[in-house]
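quick one, 464 residues, struct below
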Amino acid sequence: MSWPLCSAVARCQVRRLRERGAANPLAALAVVAVAAVAPFACVRLGSALGGELRGSLGDGVAAAIVAGPVLAAAVAGSALATSLPGRSALGAQVAAAPFRCRDAVVAECLVPMLGGGVLLLGPLFAFATSMASALDRDPVAGVALALATLAAVPGGAVLAEGILGALGGAWRQAGVVGAGVAAWALVGWKLGTTALGPLAPAATALGEGESSARACAWSSAALLGLVCAWVALAARRPERPRRAGSSSIKLVRRRGAVPGAVLALLVRRTDVRLSTAAAVGFGLGGVLLATVTDAPAPAAFMLGTTTALLGCIVPSLATCGGMCVGRWLWLAAPCPSATIGRSAWGVALVLTTLPAAVVGGVALAVSAASWSAVGTVAIVVVLAADTAAIAGVLVPWRGGAGDQLATFAAFGALAIATSLAIGVVAPRLVAFGLPDAAVALAACLGGSATATVVLRRGLEGTRA
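---
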């Protein structure tokens, strides 16, 4: 039953993406172009970063290089795990079929994940191997870093399953995950870095030039084991009961009714609440890791905020999909569509920046950071929120895990395109004499205006 179900879900995903591409051919061509150019751009970026870090890999810098993408990938994995809807998302007829829950998890998530990896695996391995070469290390050490980043995705999902089990009263499942976390720390302590667990050899391969093949073996084993563990845990998760109660948010007819309605739609979503909590938790974990290892400032601030970023963008990704469920009501509302678009963008921006601000505030309380670092992170968060909102329009965030993975893949492609565009245009504007702050402000305003227009047109486009 597993293969027929997986192939059926894969065909559904391909058909939906084909429909979205036919409806937005220019955006589809842009995504294809970015996917083709991204590996080459990531080679240049990895070489530049490795050149800056060459000769300064002591004092835990190599561990921080691995911990950064690993924590970010764990946040993404936890966000995907918390949004996994269960076998009911396959439809009533398919859900009633006699197949195992494990087959449903494989069909819903792992097969679409392989398809989404087509966009991201090339840039990831290109960046990691080029950075390792620039650090005068074996390129295979870069492969170990990329594999460690991939292994962190199911690792974050496993941790999320344990937390969901504890919240749902499945103490046996939570205990199994807790024992796994203890085993992870013990293995990491034996290998030299407790927090990285079996991924620690990737840091030693980059920092001390130890065996790259050994690091790849550890990362590959961790990837395979964590994927199997997550599938087993997700298959045993009970179905979430549907709540039909009233909301505690009361709406009245006044100036703030539209943003209040959008806020109510988003905060009532379980995936938004859990991914936001996971973002704050992993972000604070990054702050703790940087503090314990005595990393120089502003490592705690940068590691914590960038780690939380991938979990913070889920509200922006889900905005269009959540509003399209009741699109007939929005289209019939007695207010201009531009007001609805601005309100949707404003609420998504607030819900995206709030967790990052919490993590950043805690990091600033325990470690210093310059105003330049704070401004850089603020710009990245705003642009990430804008990019996520646009990606959520191009590939709406719906109930199925495949749709959510496709939305994440679209966000990755748009994020790469945005970074390439800013990297090409911004230095030339600065060379013409414009202040850095003016260029950054123009980028944020341009991204916000684009996101507002795209949200409005995405809602209007559903009229047909």
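The chain has a mean pLDDT of 79.
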